[in-house]
Structures are given as structure tokens and as C-alpha cells.
Amino acid sequence: MSNPLSVLLVNSDSSSRTTIAALLARCRHTVELSATAVSLKEVVKHLESDTPPQVVILEVQSISQGVRDVSTILTIIPHSMIIVTSVEKQPDWILTLIRAGAGEYLTTPINSEELEDALERAARMFEQKQGTETGGKVITVYNPSGGMGTTTISVNLAATLAAKGGTTSLVDLNPFSSDLVAFLDLNPAYTLSSIQETGERVDTSFLMSVMTPHSSGVKVLCGPEEIGLTAEITPNQILNLLTLIRSQFSVTIIDAGGSLSDRNLEIFNGSNLIIYPLLLTLPALNNARRYLKTMNQHGFGPNRVKVVVNRFLPKDDIRIADAEKILGVKIFHTIPNSYVEIKESIYKGTPLAIGYPRSPVTKALTELTGHIMTELDIGSR
Ligand SMILES: Nc1ncnc2c1ncn2[C@@H]1O[C@H](COP(=O)(O)OP(=O)(O)OP(=O)(O)O)[C@@H](O)[C@H]1O
Ligand SMILES: [Mg+2]
Q: Are residues 199 and 344 in the same domain?
């Protein structure tokens, strides 16, 4: 993490300010203490400046004042990371302040390791943000549970994007299954496990050497053969991987799943768009409602997360309007149920656009690709 993090420290106690400043000076990351203050009121002008701090370390003594302060900071600098410090250990406090938008909660006296970890997460968040603004686009297809069409959508999106020109990659970061190998009939010499073993030393030539080419033009980073290994990838490895892959490909599609772990939040942080595939069943809708709400609390709201209804049957008991009411978001797109074509295309290891160019399901996936390109301002290439 090369860029220094600019930090504002708000704490009413002078000896705590000195202690925290000393911890910051000894941090692994270069930290620039841009200002210190006794109260937030004192530094509102600094928040409103042209160069606001990236991180605010905010002492909270009263829960109601804390929630107000967090909200003031986020209104003025929505993309800042707030690290709350407090003597209070009650889970209620932690939950309320995190829900209000704080990124971290550290109890005092501050443990230097915990502060380092929080700053490391902040540094990663800003590095990813910078990457999503400048490099190639990253689209993650994510549903926490399986069987919703995550891989079907990932593979076909990638193949359709590749057919439009530009460089396209597809990455298997799904912790349950390494499905891309079967869906594209690949026989990879290397997989994600090579990246995991190499740790921090991965560079672009190494990354390109472990990707498997597919006849559609897509370069694939396949999931490991070993069960459970993908779940061991660290947030730092994800940051490095996404930074490298963005520098090499104009678009990358990630097949993802599992709980809202630090690993997945890191993937979301590095994604310009998250596609959430969903079947119109009551359990799937209930799960989607809970997950979308929590993703929103983590800063991944409707601007960044798009729900796509898969296996859509127009005469279904549950209609699109019902789903939108339950989820409180618009459905971005629908993909029809198309058992035969999907089954055959998986069996042959061929994306739909190649095997069934005229089928309604291919048409729907091509339209979805078009919507995504518009959303992300990706021109026809
Ligand atoms: N639009 C569709 N019409 C008909 N069948 C579909 C459609 N989309 C996916 N399927 C089928 O649903 C099953 C699950 O799809 P897929 O493997 O893409 O989901 P997944 O979310 O990646 O699941 P997994 O948990 O296995 O990773 C597959 O057998 C596939 O054939
Ligand atoms: Mg899958």
C-alpha cells in the first residue's frame, strides 16, 4: 500500500490524542495525520475542504452524539472510512454505530494491532476505489447460496462481452465449486491455487501465465481442484489479483458466492457492478431481502448491486412486481427458463451465444450485457 492515508483524529482527551498519534506514526502504512481536534464541530471546515481526510478516527462517548457525528461525516465525505474509538464494549453500541455507517469500532485503550488492521482495511478500500475508477471494469456475479445461475450468467456474460471485442477475463472465486472448468470444458494447467501459493509476489506476467484461454476469446482463471481452497484466499491477495487483472483486461467477470465474509466484501470493493441472480421462489426472495439489506449497510446499494431474475416464467405465481416490493429494488433484467439450451450448452462446454445464437435465453443474456455496458459506460469495442 504505497499511498499515505490521510487521517483526521477527533478525541477530547489530550493524552489519548498523543497515544493514538504515536501509534499512527509507528504504523506499517504511511499515515498522514492531517488534523487533530477535540470535537467534530471544531473540524467541520476541514471535512469540507478540497482535500478532506480519507479516515476519521472518532472518539464516541455518547451513542446519540456518535450516530450524529458519523452521519455528519458521511454527509460531507461519503467515501471516508470512520474508525470509532470508545470505552464502551456493549454490542448494542457497536451495532448501532456500524449501522450508522462507521467502518470499524475499536475499544479503548486501543490495541495497536487492531488499529493496524483497521487501517490496512481502509488502505485496501481506497486502493480498490482508485482501481475501479481508472482500470478495466470488474463485474461480480454473486449469490450467497448456490443453484441460482451464478455460473451460467458469468460464463455467458464473459463470452458475449468478448464477442464485442476488447479483452475479457473470467475468474472463479466461488468458494463452493470451481464450476468454470466444467461449464467451458477446460483442462487447466494452473488454477487460482498457483496465485494463492505465490502470495504477494504475483505480477502480471505470472497472472497471465496461469490463465487458461477459451475459444470464445475469454481468458479464464479457473478455481482450484482442492475443495475449500478458494475460501482461504486473503483479502490482500484479492486486492492484488484485482489490481493486476484490471491492468490487463478491459472487462473481468467474477463468479462468486458464500457469506458476506471479508473476502467477499473485498471482491465487492473492487467491483464496478455486482449482479445478484435470483430465482422467484419464496426462500430465495427472503434470503435476497436479508442479504441485499446487509450489503447496502456495507455500502453496496442499488447503484452498485443489480438483481437479475433467472429462470423467469411469465406465468409464475410470484410476479416481478411482487419481487420488487419484497426487495425494495427494481429488477434489472430477467432471463427466461430455458432448460434444454442451458443443459446442452453446459454439456458441450460452449457458451449459449456460440451454441444457440438465436434462442430467447441467448437474446436475454445479450440484452443483459448491453444494459451492463450502458451502466458502466463501456462502449462497443
Ligand atoms: N435460465 C435457465 N433456464 C434453465 N435452467 C437454468 C437456467 N439458468 C441456470 N439453469 C440451471 O440451473 C442450474 C444451476 O445453474 P448454475 O450452475 O449456473 O448456478 P450456480 O448459482 O452457479 O450454482 P452452483 O451452486 O452449482 O455454483 C444448472 O443446472 C443450470 O442448468
Ligand atoms: Mg456455480
A: yes
The residues lining ligand 1, judged by C-beta closer than 6 Å to any ligand atom, are: 143, 146-152, 174, 176-177, 179, 310-311, 335, 337-339, 342-343, 346, 361
User: Given CA atoms 186, 306, 143, 312 in this order, what sign does their dihedral have?
Assistant: negative
DSSP labels for 321-343?
Answer: HHHHHHHTS-EEEEEE--HHHHH
What are the backbone dihedrals phi and psi of residue 58, each rounded to the nearest 5 degrees, phi first? -115, 120
Neighbours of ion ligand 2 (CB under 5 A): 150-151, 179
Query: Is 14 inside any structural domain?
Result: yes
Burial of 270 (0-12, 13-18, 19+ CB in 10 A): buried
Asked, for residue 381, whether it belongs to a domain, the answer is no
User: Could you give the dihedral angle defined by the CA atoms of residues 13, 15, 20 and 25, in that order, rounded to the nearest 10 degrees?
Assistant: 140
Residues 231 and 141 placed together within one structural domain of the fold: yes
Check whether residue 188 and residue 241 sit in a common domain: yes
d(CA 320, CA 34): 49
Please report which residue ranges of the chain form alpha helices under DSSP H. 14-25, 44-47, 63-76, 91-100, 112-134, 150-163, 180-183, 192-198, 204-209, 235-248, 262-269, 282-297, 320-327, 339-348, 352-355, 360-375
Over residues 68-88, the pLDDT tens digits come to: 999 999 999 988 999 999 999
- CATH value at residue 115: 3.40.50.2300
Residue from 278, 342, 347, 352 to probe ligand 1 pocket by mutation (most atoms less than 8 Å from CB): 342
Name the residue type at position 186.
L
| CATH code for position 289 | 3.40.50.300
Q: What is the pTM of this model?
A: 0.85
Q: What is the mean pLDDT of residues 256-272?
A: 95
Cα torsion 155, 161, 163, 169: sign: negative
* Count of structural domains within the chain: 2
Looking at residue 1, its pLDDT comes to: 46
